[in-house]
Every structure is written in structure tokens, then in C-alpha cells.
Amino acid sequence: MTAQKPILDHVLGHAEKTPQRVFLTQPLGGDRVEEYTWARVVDEARRMAAHLQSLGLSPGDRVAMLSKNCAHFFIAELAVWMGGFTTVAIFPTEGADTVRYVLEHSEAKVLFVGKLDTWSQQAPGVPAGVKQIGLPLAPAGDFPRWNDLMKATAPLAGRPSRDPEDLALIIYTSGSTGQPKGVMHSYGAVSKVAELIVKAIALTDADRCISYLPLAHVFERAYIEFSSFVAGQQIFFADALDTFVADLKRARPTLFISVPRLWLKFQQGVFTKMPPERLDLLLKIPFLGKRVAKKVLNGLGLDHVRLAGSGSAPIPAELIAWYRRLGLNLLEGYAMSEDMAYSHLSTPEKSAPGYVGPPLAGVEVKLSEEGEVLIKSPGKMVGYYKQPELTAEVFNADGFFRTGDKGERRADGVLKLTGRVKELFKTAKGKYVAPAPIENKLNEHPLIELSCVSGVGQPAAFAYVVLAEDLRKSQSDPATRARVEKELGEHLDRVNAGLSTYEQMQMLVVAKEPFTIENGLLTPTMKIKRSRIEEQFKPHLDQWYAQRGKVLWA
Description:
Strand content: 15-25%
Number of strands: 25
Radius of gyration: 24 Å
Helix content: 25-40%
CATH class of the largest domain: Alpha Beta
Distance between the termini: 53 Å
Structural class: alpha/beta
Strand order of the largest sheet: 6-5-3-4-7-8-17
CATH topology of the largest domain: Rossmann fold
């Protein structure tokens, strides 16, 4: 499937037809923002493309970006493409070792240094010889600055174009299962998928989005950045974590995508202001319920959202149902870096909590004899960079990608994921346990933020759980502990009642610290790093299993 129009032609078209329309809105602290029109975006991209070409790079050379989300991430990517090069984005939370690995593995010649919190710790990871350019919000550093280069460089002339087979970007996976892999995507596939996403969710230039999930990840890149290049919707950015609600209210997005952990944190934030039992009661009252629901969404900055999406990891079915009761059209999707986030998406007509929807247009799906989900997508990757053997392994003889996920399909094609093929483990009872579906059930409880189900070779499975943020501050308090032990003990019984005997958990163990990106227990896209978490609690397993309590404290 070829794109009707290359993605750069869409961008140039916006600048020609609506040059003064605001495309990007960048907060600068407090109430200050800087707005970038389409004319300015294209002019700056042309100037930087000309500068990159002046550095003596060869066509297709890799240009890396290390930055939190900001307007110049978009502009820099356009400059790389206009100049004839390939982008490599690095998660802004990565340490020096991973920064070095990605830059060396990709053979990047240039690095854009952008908005960062820990540049002083990351900078030693940049290999000698990699040229650096500071984006406008970059920390202090010994490198040329974007704005200075804009003044000194004439814009690239003509109408920049790329061959559909050219390599547009390499996406380094977030590393939940080991060393990041470089997923290669062509310019033609990027163009086509962007058009297909815009059509699938009916995006127009009247829509508004906020970009805050990591742009180094395929989900945000495809559904926010690439789609905006085609549809032209206005993109807002977040300034900082503690200003996020204010940034969200500034944007009043019509499309909002997030990941399960953040949807859960939004819910828990609501519950700190109003107990779930009271909110549930109010929502049942005719007329008043609608007003209450609208007030809740208004407080979250989501009252203008026409379409909300969740991806990157499974989301509890009960959480989707809760948001829908508020009137938020929350739809779950499913995709991965290897298909450029273009695989499955629920629709209002084909949607059910716990299901990730039907395949998107042009996507072929089937299940292997073992129940593994196999996909052939218009967003199919070129392959893994420098790993042809691994590329060959992940495609079957018919060209379908082996996702590693187990699933079930309804007659209408709607897909339900039932676990990861490689995450299955055996307890001493000798049968395989799929942890993800059990974790989803556990995470439905408002006292639990995240969980990790494990128990390899043990008498039974168990779950290592992180308490909701508001409870963690007082988890040493006897009254809090008594409440947690009572409510989570009852929750454990309810979840176990719905499981097969060999899947049932012996206990829940409350973690001392949350799973975070900083402590290495979450990936930058907020998936749990199962192996790292298991390493952390492994020395204590014998002691916990010997205690025989329902709820234990690590």
C-alpha cells in the first residue's frame, strides 16, 4: 500500500496553504508560551537541513535526538528528512551507558541535544566525534545553538523529497527484555501509516493534541507527531511534571492518548478528592450524574476530548469502564514498534473492555497453532538494524510478524490479548501461568498502582504490588497497614476465585518502593521490567512463602 502523498509534501502543503496557522505551542514556564506557525516550522526545518548538509554527511547518515518532548523535536525531525538523513531518537531518561550504546550502534554522526533534566550525567555517554547541536530549550553546553544556526544559515531551496525506500528512522525499543533493538522504518511506510492513522481516527486541522508521552517511542511518534504532519492539528507540549494539569487545561485536547499507568494515576487523583463509593453513587443519580461526570473530566482537562486512547501495555477492563461512565470515549489499541504502532484499535462499534479492537485497515491477522498473534501491517518494519538473523526469526514464511503475544479473536475480528509467550512461567504445580491477565485484574483495585505476578518453581504464584501514591506516604502507619491488609486480602480472594487452581496466588507482597523509570523497574514507556523486579525480590522469596500470610510487607 503506497501513500497518496509523501509526508514532507503534506508538511510543505500546510506551509503553502495556511502559512500563518499555529501548528506548535511550546510552554516556556508560567503562562508564557511560544507559538510556531507552519511557515516558521518549515523555514527553520529548511535552514537546519541546509546546515546538516554543510557538515559533510552522506545520504542516509543517522542524526540522533536526545530530548524531552518539545516543538523543536518535530522541527528537527523534519530537517533530518529534508536533508536526506535518518533520525534516531533516544529516550530522554536514559543513562550515559544506553546513550553511548545507541549512538555507537546506530553510527550517528550528529546529536541534537534538547530539553533535558539530567544532561550532565548523560553527556559522558556521547562518543568523541559525534557533532552536537543544542535545541532552543537545551541545557548549557559546549555546542552550537539552534537559534544561532538559524541566523547564520540560508534555507534549503526547492521542494525536498525522499525515495519511499529511504530509511526514515530507527526506533530503539525501550528495553523491557534486554538490550534495545533498532527497528528500521522506511520513508514510504511512515507516510502511509500517518495517512492511515488520520483516516482511522478522523483527524482534521481543527483537532488539538498534547504531546507528553516520550517521542522516542513509536506510539507518540505515530499518533501525535506523524499524524499532525498529515492532518495539521495543533500540538501543545507540557512544560514539566508539576505543570502537567495546567498544560493539559491550556490545550483542552480533542484527542488524548496515554498509557495504562497514567490513566490509573488520573483515576487515583480523582479518588483523593472524592471517595470512589460516593462518586459511584452520584454517577447513578439521573441528571446530577452527568453534571458530576462533566466536572470530573473538566478537572482533568479532558472535557473536550472526543477520542481517548490507551496503548503501550494492557489496561484493566474495569478502568476503561470507569472512564466510559464519565462519558470519556476511551478506546484501547494494540501495536508495537515493529509495525509502527499500526495494528489494532477499538472503535465505538467494536469495543469491549479487555479487548484491543479489530485490525486497522490494511492489517492482516492470524493466530499460530500455539495462539501467538501474527500480524502483517502497512507499517511493517524494514528489519532490525545490524541484526538480519533476528529479523529473519521474527517473520514466518508468509511474511507475518511474530508478536510474542498470545491472543484470542472473536468472530468479528476483535482481539483479546491473553499474555506474552515468553512471560509464561511454571510453578511447582507444573502448569504455565500467564502473568499479564492476572496483573490486570489486580490493578483494578484503587489501592494498587502496579503489580508483578511471579512464582517460578514455587508452590504457587504470588504478586509483588505497589500501593497507590497517596497510601505510600503512610504505609508504615498501623491504621493504613490494617486497611491495606483487609482490603487487599479480600481482593486477593476475589481475583483467585476467577482463576484456575494452578494460577491462584498464595499472597500479595507490598513493595517498599514504587516501580519507576529512575530506579530501573519501569521502561521509559512505563511497562514493568519484569526481570529487574524479580531480581529485586528474589532473595526474600523463601521467607515470604514461609510466612503464609495473604498480604505481606517487603
